[in-house]
Amino acid sequence: MYPDKYALSLKENLFLAKKVLVAQIHNLSRFENCQTTLLQTEQIINGHNVATASLGDIQTILHLKRAYLYVIQHLSDGLPADMALLKKINNMVAQDDSLAPGEFRTGSVGVTLFDGSRHTLPAMTKAEVAELMHSIETHSGSTIETAIRTMLALMRQQVFWDGNKRTATLFANALMMEKGCGILEIAEAKMPEFNEKLSAFYRSDDDSEVAAFLYQHCISGIDY
């Protein structure tokens, strides 16, 4: 259903990841409702003082930068996109927000959906998260499908105490980079539609519409 769109080398894919670093971090920061402009995001990433940005926004962006660069280095070192990387990403992006950064939640959390309802699911153990990820990989026909469906499932299940969307998106990119399948980037302009479809998925547990949206609008690579 979702054939891979690109067949890049790891070197090519990591080159691409570095080229879109600023845009990726800017877009990921929208999950935390950061108010920075793209230019301000770039200035913060480059270590410049941005007096008009809030401390919270600056910290969110710097944590995302650290996690994104860690993923690139991790893959560059030939290490796999696995459970350990997933937890490390969350440890970095949610270190100021989570009760236990990098650890799967053991208590109840809820998410408010577009219609005002609350989405709450039981906590999952490490073994249950591993089984969920294995099942998705087994039933997917491509790396892109695995990445998209893993990302969406991790978001819906709220496996961590906080930072689930940022963590899941970065991990999906790690899965794709590892296999040379390009980049998954939800542009700021696409975020409202994505969030609406994601909210519908939370209610229905049917990811087909939001997965198709991501596949059609949010995958990029190097075209020769």
Verbal overview:
The protein is mainly α. The protein is 57% helix and 4% strand. Strand 1 and strand 2 form a beta hairpin. Helix 7 crosses helix 10. The mean pLDDT is 96.
Structural class determined from secondary elements = mainly alpha
What name does CATH use for the topology?
Fic-like fold
Stretches with pLDDT under 50, minimum 5 residues: none
Q: Give the fraction of residues assigned to helices.
A: 55-70%
- Indicate the proportion of strand residues: under 5%
Oligomer: single chain
- N-to-C terminal Cα separation, in Å? 24 Å
Number of domains: 1
What would CATH call the homologous superfamily? Answer: Fido-like domain
Q: How many beta strands in the DSSP annotation?
A: 4
Radius of gyration: 16 Å
Biggest β-sheet, characterized? Answer: 2 strands, antiparallel
Q: Sketch the topology as an H/E string, one letter per element.
A: HHHHHEEHHHEHHE
Number of discrete helical segments: 10
Strand order of the largest sheet: 1-2
| Dominant shape | globular
Mean pLDDT: 96
Protein name: Fido domain-containing protein
Domain Fido: 81-216
Organism: Neisseria chenwenguii
InterPro entries: Fido, Fido-like_dom_sf, Fido_containing
